[in-house]
What we know:
alpha+beta; 6-stranded antiparallel β-barrel; 15 strands; elongated
Amino acid sequence: MTDETKLIYQQDGDRLVHTAGILSVVSVSALAETDQSLVKDSPDAEHAVITNSTIFHVQGGGQPSDSGIMTSKVNESADSIFEVKSVRRPAHGSQILHFGRFMPAEATRFDAGEEVQQLVHVEKRKLYSRLHTGGHILGLAINALCREGVLSSLTESKASHYPDSAAVEFVGIIEGKHKDAIQVKTDEYVRSARPIKIHWWSMEELLEKCNGVAGGFELPAGEVVGRVVEMEGLGSYPCGGTHVQDCSQVGKIEVKKISRSKGSSRVSYRVV
């Protein structure tokens, strides 16, 4: 397998319907064991559909994968619908695996070379984009409070943007008494409605300008530029995820809790 899957959502995050070409359809049981293990979060997935391009966000970077459906573009009267449950990178190569099942089970499978229409689950995509942008805004707000002397020096380490476990983590101690200050600064950034912009920067520029790279950052093998999301005038992060168009579209970011363990602090949040 040599053809790679082009990640359309990294260039056009607002596209929710897309025509793609089928490269192959593989039974999950026929995949390498390392790739079969990727479906543990979707136990009812029976096949992996591989296309030459995709608008489905691939799980990673703290963001869940998109879900949705694929339908035949060639034969619109066909009854086959592929329900996309999860989307993952294989252990080897660049052909994205769309895990799911055909509905009904006896439906005709897609053929190699056939065109299909991809449709993303809109409400989930919107929520995941709000959560991902919200996590970056929260991180930038905490970094700003460090610069202002409200918080002691911290090093941003990682983040999760899943609905039930959204949080940003820092090496260093954030005391609980600072929760209100973090909420106020985060609210300020959301109200600013600063545009969200996507850039492709060299490694040198990325390391110079981005937050969240203090612990080391590497581009994927073979890549010479990295994708960056910028909250204009507030800061930027290397990021492959989906985002809203401006800070206000996140809605309310509620700072839920600050927890501390082994010299690190975790600030959990949700968007409402």
